[in-house]
Design a protein that fits this description.
This protein is α/β, with parallel strands linked by helices. It has 5 helices and 5 strands; from the N terminus they run E-H-H-E-H-E-H-E-E-H. Helix content is about 35%, strand content about 20%. A 5-stranded parallel beta sheet has the order 2-1-3-4-5, with helices on both faces. Helix 3 runs parallel beside helix 4.
């Protein structure tokens, strides 16, 4: 089974950025734990702060992977193009957000991704990635 994890803007700063919201763990450290927890899964990981690069990654993984875990960060609320990219691919996508976006600023309550994803996991911290991977691993 092949699963891609795609992280959007500012998620490269996990462990440093607003630790009261996002925690102290880096994504790289968490990703190593995730790979150890699911040794049967072939993971690919991509992070970018650039919208077009995220769309390119969705298209790259979107026709030959079993699942994509996507945290589009702030682009969730602004990028119709990322939503369109999800609709254009055949690989199912689960939207993940570390923080509870519904408990934050009003603009964060809008998602151009949710309607195109098979599901959304919001506000459970990094555990959301594990839950998404677990979902895909049971769908074989």
């Amino acid at each position: 089974m092949k699963i891609a994890i795609i992280n959007g803007p500012n998620l490269n700063l996990l462990g440093k950025r607003e630790p009261n919201v996002y925690g102290l763990e880096t994504f790289e450290n968490y990703f190593d734990k995730l790979k150890n927890q699911f040794p049967e899964i072939q993971f690919s990981y991509f992070q970018s702060n650039v919208e077009g690069e995220l769309i390119n990654a969705l298209q790259q993984f979107g026709f030959n992977y079993d699942g994509i875990v996507l945290n589009p960060g702030g682009y969730t609320h602004t990028s119709v193009a990322i939503g369109d990219a999800i609709a254009a691919i055949t690989t199912p996508v689960i939207e993940v957000h570390i923080s509870n976006v519904h408990a934050r600023e009003d603009f964060r309550k809008i998602s151009h991704v949710s309607a195109k994803a098979v599901g959304s996991i919001i506000g459970l911290g990094l555990k959301g990635y594990e839950l998404a991977v677990n979902y895909f691993s049971t769908q074989q």
